[in-house]
């Protein structure tokens, strides 16, 4: 049966969720992936009739009816998803054309059109970064056959070789979800086929450019740290005749040693520079990889570098030959070196002479190497590996010359041409075939050159010599000049685009879709569901919900209502066992003047000047609301977190210590207070705190009592504040001179208040230091690695939940024994016979043979057992391909129990009978997890709010110290704190509020303001009235830029 073509449809719902419905060619199912528009993180859990469906129409019906989603885009291939520069982009292919075909009739498509859909974005400036990647007409794919490996491949197309796949990073989020097969695998280069008229054979030329060392011309040269050369291309010429195929392979790339090209100025000539001290590192690994991939006995390295003594490429020639001569010492045998200065021959004799001379060198190796044939009839014994400096023009021309000879050799072996003694290969190959090869090699050369240099290839005229009607030509001098301009002006930005396209990434957080959050008994669906309906919650009552996979709960988004006259508190507990939940946080939800969406941190509070708690995974969350009112109106709550994906590296949590240890730290703090409070002083204080295992809040209390902002004595905050400044020394704050040497130090990733012992890790936050302070910086970083090793800890990832685990969390909470077979909750979607339909509709039915049917449930159901009356106890029932356990009940009833309850939107039921039997009263028992049709109370009792009058005071904001001082006119009676926040600004949200009277503190509280969706007034009612003469607010956010909200007191 012919496989279907992939179908992709992208929908958007008014609730802010994107849904991607993919029907891949390799399965009969349709998969729905949900992406929230706040984080862009994809979600899929494999729940039937929720995110996996038996056909495309069922999936679309679910999306349009459950989410009121609207179709936005359609395509025939899914690239994947990418995150770069504050934006998440979904890529789909919506245009392609057949350019080639493989043995077996597998079609190869060249991409001609694509859509990049912005799922979420916070930075308009970088909106086109990924779209600038040169995708169209330079990339190809095959749905039905793996073309990332040499033919014949025994892998499916959705398990590509990452070395030659160019959307690895895009595919990875889907692979992590177990549905990597939903994405196509794209290659960079060209695949073209040609069937000569009246002939019984086809030629396919494949040019695969590797993705293992991506980059522009001068950014990707020689070997990288993974021992892969820049601009590496694999060529494969495939001849198909009848049921047989014959393949000849080669490689081309830059010189596989460590070297680079240096531009002293924008107008100077580039200089090739070998890294003499490590030129051979990685070269053995590269050639071992070649031997492993091709299984060839010999490798001939054809070097096309200029061989003139003292020339610009002479150092490359010298060290490349040295590197190859050292390979036998590494037990790598069979690698030969053949230099051939193709530029000199072209200059002296032209393309025809260059062709003849070149073949004199390589012809014996090509002929002896032979072809790879299907069914292991033949094996290519020798691989030719070509190089010049760039692996652009000379290698493209040389491989074209070789392709003509390879084609003549194959035609000769197939007895399709007559070969005379002194025949020239170019005269043996039919002109139409040469025209095809010339066009194919020019176009593949242009693609490789475009990606590498942003120009067309040169030496095209040398190829055109063999195909005069070729519609291409090149002005080599003009293109050489264009390349210089491109390299200086354009390549830096192009390099960033390529890195954005190819670099792996992680999602920091995920906003869990309401489709996967299941409220437990007594929790209103509207509290965690879609829409904007309010839920009326009772004071001190707990509400629980379950997640489909263990998650680290990072933050919660709440919708406070303007109807609430007073503030309320939300206590958050979470865990994997409802009897042993862990307290995470208690959040104060302020009074608001209009409905807002407010985000509160839960476990990740580092940016707010606090220590992160040790990560813990949860499958259950428990929310308890409390306050002065008996009831609260709250809009839908959304949960943000990270799913378990391996063990998590963290640091040990500091506990409250004994008074002696705290006193020892107090000595260090007092020394800091007497110091100049430079960065070295605050880092020394942090080293003392970490060395004594003292919690941060002890230091915070010392700072408040000493009258300084805790932010000032927090080394992490000070490092962040100086990280963006490249004009001043981070230690002494002296301005750099224009020609002054700057030293780079980096922040530790684990202990973010210390400097790293590794100054070369570019992924870490950087600081710039002058020469006078470089020794001090080195001392600060000297022992960090030792401390890191002592404090490093790991949180073990929990096992993945099975689909019924959520229901086994607490039998007291969920009633799994309800009749859910009523027609408002379930629907018959297929039946093998009219008898099956009668049974489903509970009619007494006489059955003569086994039958089956499928039931779809409204929303997700948990099926525990089936029941029906039967005149024969030998009846058996199979549910979702698993035989149910049978119990004989009273009154002729049979109960069929499922050992592990099934959580799904659909079940398949098969009733197996061995003789004539009557069946009646068919019933399905379980529970519907969410019931969206429950009555929703839209009107809430609205109590009048007190009129708020601000207390007069004189305020002074010290931006350098991040402190707000307020002086009242005499003694003020304070009942409320009022913060006016601007949603368009990234204001500081972590505030320690202190009231003072008679020189003493009378009130001290730490508030973390929510991040609001709109500009809003946040009102915090104090538990009692405080008399104060002044107020001080210390902002302790760990951010580089300080913006304070407007504050009033009432």
From TrEMBL:
Every SAC domain range: 130-454
Single GO molecular function: phosphatase activity
Coiled-coil boundaries: none
Top-level taxon of the source organism: Eukaryota
Listed GO biological process terms: phosphatidylinositol metabolic process
InterPro entries, A to Z: SAC_dom
Stated name of the protein: SacI homology domain containing protein
Pfam family name, one: Syja_N
PROSITE patterns to which the protein is assigned, alphabetical: SAC
PANTHER family attached to this UniProt entry: PHOSPHOINOSITIDE PHOSPHATASE SAC9-RELATED (PTHR46817), SAC DOMAIN-CONTAINING PROTEIN (PTHR46817:SF1)
Organism listed in the record: Trichomonas vaginalis (strain ATCC PRA-98 / G3)
């Amino acid at each position: 049966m012919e496989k279907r073509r992939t179908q992709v449809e992208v929908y958007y719902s008014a609730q802010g969720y994107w849904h991607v419905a993919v029907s891949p060619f390799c399965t009969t199912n349709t998969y729905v992936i949900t992406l929230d528009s706040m984080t862009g993180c994809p979600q899929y859990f494999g729940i039937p009739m929720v995110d996996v469906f038996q056909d495309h129409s069922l999936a679309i019906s679910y999306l349009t009816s459950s989410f009121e989603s609207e179709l936005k885009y359609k395509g025939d291939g899914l690239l994947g998803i990418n995150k770069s520069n504050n934006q998440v982009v979904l890529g789909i292919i919506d245009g392609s054309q057949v350019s080639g075909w493989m043995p077996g009739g597998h079609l190869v498509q060249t991409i001609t059109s694509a859509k990049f859909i912005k799922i979420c974005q916070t930075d308009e400036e970088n909106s086109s970064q990924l779209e600038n990647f040169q995708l169209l007409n330079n990339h190809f794919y095959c749905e039905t056959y793996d073309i990332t490996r040499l033919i014949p491949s025994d892998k499916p197309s959705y398990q590509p070789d990452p070395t030659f796949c160019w959307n690895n990073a895009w595919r990875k989020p889907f692979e992590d979800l177990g549905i990597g097969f939903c994405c196509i695998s794209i290659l960079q280069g060209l695949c073209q086929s040609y069937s000569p008229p009246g002939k019984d054979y086809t030629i396919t030329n494949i040019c695969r450019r590797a993705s293992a060392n991506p980059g522009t011309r001068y950014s990707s040269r020689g070997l990288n740290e993974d021992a892969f050369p820049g601009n590496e291309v694999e060529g494969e010429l495939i001849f198909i005749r009848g049921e047989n195929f014959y393949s000849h392979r080669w490689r081309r790339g830059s010189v596989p040693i460590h070297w680079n090209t240096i531009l002293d100025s924008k107008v100077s000539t580039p200089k090739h520079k070998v890294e003499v001290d490590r030129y051979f590192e990685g070269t053995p690994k590269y050639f071992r990889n070649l031997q492993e991939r091709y299984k060839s006995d010999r490798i001939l390295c054809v070097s096309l570098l200029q061989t003139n003594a003292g020339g610009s490429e002479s150092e490359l020639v010298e060290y490349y030959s040295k590197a190859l001569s050292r390979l036998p010492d590494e037990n790598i045998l069979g690698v030969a070196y053949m230099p051939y200065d193709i530029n000199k021959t072209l200059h002296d004799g032209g393309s025809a002479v260059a062709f003849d001379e070149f073949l004199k060198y390589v012809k014996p190796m090509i002929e002896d190497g032979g072809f790879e044939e299907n069914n292991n009839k033949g094996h290519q014994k020798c691989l030719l590996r070509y190089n010049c400096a760039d692996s652009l023009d000379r290698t493209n021309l040389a491989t074209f010359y070789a392709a003509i000879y390879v084609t003549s050799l194959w035609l000769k072996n197939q007895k399709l041409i007559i070969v005379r003694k002194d025949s020239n290969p170019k005269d043996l190959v039919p002109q139409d075939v040469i025209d095809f090869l010339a066009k194919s090699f020019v176009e593949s050369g242009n693609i490789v050159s475009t990606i590498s240099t942003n120009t067309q290839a040169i030496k095209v005229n040398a190829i055109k010599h063999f195909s005069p009607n070729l519609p291409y030509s090149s002005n080599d001098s003009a293109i050489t000049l264009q390349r210089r301009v491109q390299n200086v002006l354009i390549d830096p930005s192009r390099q960033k685009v390529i890195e954005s396209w190819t670099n792996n990434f992680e999602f920091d957080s995920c906003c869990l879709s309401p489709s996967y959050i299941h409220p437990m008994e007594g929790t209103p669906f509207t509290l965690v569901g879609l829409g904007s309906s309010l839920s009326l919650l009772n004071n001190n009552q707990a509400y629980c919900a379950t997640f489909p996979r263990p998650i680290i709960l990072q933050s919660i988004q709440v919708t406070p209502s303007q109807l609430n006259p007073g503030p309320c508190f939300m206590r958050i507990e979470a865990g994997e066992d409802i009897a042993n939940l862990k307290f995470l946080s208690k959040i104060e939800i302020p009074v608001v003047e209009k409905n807002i969406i407010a985000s509160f941190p839960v476990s990740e509070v580092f940016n707010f000047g606090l220590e992160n708690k040790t990560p813990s995974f949860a499958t259950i969350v428990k929310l308890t609301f409390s306050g002065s009112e008996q009831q609260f109106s709250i809009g839908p709550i959304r949960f943000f977190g990270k799913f378990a994906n391996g063990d998590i590296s963290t640091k040990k949590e500091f506990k409250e210590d004994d008074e002696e240890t705290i006193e020892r730290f107090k000595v260090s703090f007092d020394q800091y207070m007497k110091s100049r409070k430079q960065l070295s002083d605050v880092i020394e204080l942090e080293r003392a705190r970490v060395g004594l295992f003292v919690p941060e809040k002890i230091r915070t209390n010392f700072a408040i009592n000493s009258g300084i902002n805790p932010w000032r004595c927090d080394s992490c905050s000070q490092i962040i504040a100086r990280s963006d400044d490249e004009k001043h020394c981070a230690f002494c704050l002296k301005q750099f001179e224009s020609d002054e040497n700057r030293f780079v130090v980096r922040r530790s990733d684990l202990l973010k208040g210390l400097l790293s012992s590794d100054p070369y890790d570019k992924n870490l936050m950087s600081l710039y230091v002058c020469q006078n302070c470089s020794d001090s910086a080195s001392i600060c970083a000297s022992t960090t690695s030792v401390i890191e090793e002592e404090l490093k800890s790991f949180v073990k990832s929990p096992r993945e939940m099975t689909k019924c685990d959520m229901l086994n969390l607490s039998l007291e909470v969920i009633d799994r024994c309800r009749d859910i077979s009523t027609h408002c909750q379930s629907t018959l979607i297929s039946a093998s016979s009219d008898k099956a339909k009668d049974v489903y509709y509970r009619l007494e039915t006489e059955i003569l043979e086994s039958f089956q049917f499928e039931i779809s449930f409204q929303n997700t159901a948990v099926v525990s057992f089936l029941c029906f009356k039967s005149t024969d106890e030998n009846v058996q029932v199979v549910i979702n391909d698993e035989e149910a356990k049978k119990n004989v009940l009273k009154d002729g009833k049979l109960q069929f129990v499922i050992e592990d309850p099934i959580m799904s939107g659909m079940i398949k039921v098969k009733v197996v009978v061995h003789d004539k039997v009557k069946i009646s009263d068919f019933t399905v028992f379980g529970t519907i997890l969410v019931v969206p049709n429950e009555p929703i109370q839209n009107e809430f009792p609205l109590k009048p709010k007190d009129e708020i009058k601000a207390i007069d005071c004189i305020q002074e904001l010290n931006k350098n110290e991040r402190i707000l001082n307020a002086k009242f006119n005499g003694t003020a009676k304070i009942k409320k704190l009022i913060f006016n926040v601007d949603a368009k600004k990234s204001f500081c949200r972590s505030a320690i509020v202190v009231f003072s009277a008679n020189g003493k503190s009378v009130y001290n509280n730490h508030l973390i303001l929510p991040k609001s969706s709109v500009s809003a007034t946040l009102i915090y009612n104090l538990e009692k009235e405080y008399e104060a003469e002044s107020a001080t607010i210390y902002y302790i956010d760990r951010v580089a830029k300080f913006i304070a909200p407007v504050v009033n007191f009432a």
